[in-house]
Amino acid sequence: MHENFKSKLNSLENQMRTKHDLECAVDYKSICDNCGLSHYTSLDGLKGIIENQYLRMGAFHQLNDPQEIYYGIKQYCDYLKSSNLIFHPEDKIFENTLEKILEEALSCHILSFCKNSDHLPAWRYYADNGYGFSLQFQKFFFKPEKYGDINTNLGIYRIKYETINQYNSFFEEYKSNITKLKDLINNNDELVDYSTMLAKHILICAQGLKDPIFKDENEYRLFMLREKVKVCHDIIETIPYHNNHVFSRGCIGNKKFFKFKFDVSNIKSITIGPSNDFEQAQNYLKTYLSQHNVLNKIAIVKSKYLYRG
Predict the structure, then answer these.
(1) Range of the domain at 205
(2) Biggest alpha carbon–alpha carbon distance for the chain
(3) 8-12, 24-28, 54-58, 130-134: which has the highest mean pLDDT?
(4) Which residues of 134-168 are buried (b: 16+ CB within 10 A; e: fewer)?
(5) Number of domains in the chain
(6) Residue at 136 is within a domain
(7) What are the angstrom distances between the C-alpha of 85 and each of 76, 80, 144, 171, 305?
(8) Contacts (Cβ under 8 Å, ≥6 apart) of 50
(9) DSSP strand pairing (54-59 vs 106-114)
(10) Alpha-helical runs (H) found in 83-151
(11) What residues does 59 pair with on adjacent strands?
């Protein structure tokens, strides 16, 4: 790779990632205190959170709906093709590179939150069809040291429920520079590096874009993209962040994830899913939380919905 191409590639990649985070990442101060963000989970998930004091950041292909991220990927790929920013489809370089990034080269982990702690679709999809619980937090307990870190892209993002036609400013703004960079390519290695840069940026953008039909979810995501990471159950790696919070690796069966440790006292309330018998679930929760010395710190709330999943 000649130096001019490499320099321009790295510069453009940094510019685009910085632009993305400035426009899409949530201002930490705006959700630090009284954030109101909630996490939906099953009974087993709730017990795991209380007992282990961590939340799981699962790989994107292990989401409740692993196909949802492909909505954004398809939107961006179609836009790049229509703008002639990727090469002729017969070359398959870009498609192969994107597939490799999604399956092997990158570790993309997501932890989802909802602004509404009692939302019927969320009960159905994310909390055991209404038999689960939602945990509302007093403060958002994580502050990224910085956005745009090439090796550990980590940020809090509010999901946009839009089509690419409403949400293509990143590529539109840099379209001219991307085209110029594309014209500098003179060998296959540079073509692969160019395709890799675009594919990585697509993945970062796509995780924050969902079909408009889901807009009532009002979802937020803690998103981590780590490059060239081997995630193995016998290799433990911790990543220190603000206030000594850490991420560490975990594995249950064939599911590999990052553990996001936090203080359970930060849970403001637990809403009982509408499919549960409220009195029975409430008594169970009181006994369970008392056993773990957090009963007096957490309010127990009844869902407003009459629903049986």
Answers:
(1) 3-34+54-119+142-265
(2) 70
(3) 130-134
(4) bbbbbebbbebeebbeeebbbbbbbbbbbebeebb
(5) 1
(6) no
(7) 11, 5, 32, 9, 48
(8) 264, 288, 289, 292, 294
(9) antiparallel
(10) 93-100, 120-126
(11) 109
CA angle 183, 188, 189 (to 5 degrees): 100
In terms of Cα–Cα distance, which of 51, 70, 64, 169 is closest to 114?
A: 64
Strand 133-137 to 38-41 pairing: antiparallel
Residue 266 DSSP one-character state: G
* In the block, residue with structure tokens 């850490």: 246
In this prediction, residue 46 carries a pLDDT of: 95
Question: Are the beta carbons of 53 and 261 closer than 8 angstroms?
Answer: yes
Token pair 């745009």 is found at 148
pLDDT (tens digit, 9 = 90+) per residue, 193-218?
888 888 878 877 788 888 888 888 88
Is position 246 within any domain? yes
Q: How far is CA 114 from the centre of its chain?
A: 12
Do 139 and 264 contact (CB within 8 A), yes or no? no
Q: What is residue 128's predicted lDDT score, i.e. its pLDDT?
A: 93
Distance CA 150, CA 17 (A): 8
Structure tokens, 232: 């193995």
Residue 203 lies in a domain: yes
224 Rama class: left (phi>0) / alpha (psi -120 to 50) / beta: beta
Average confidence (pLDDT) over 25-31: 63
The residue to which tokens 């016998």 are assigned: 234
Residue 7 within a domain: yes
Amino acid at 27: D
Q: Which residue has the tokens 């007093």?
A: 138
Q: Which residue has the higher pLDDT, 190 or 44?
A: 44
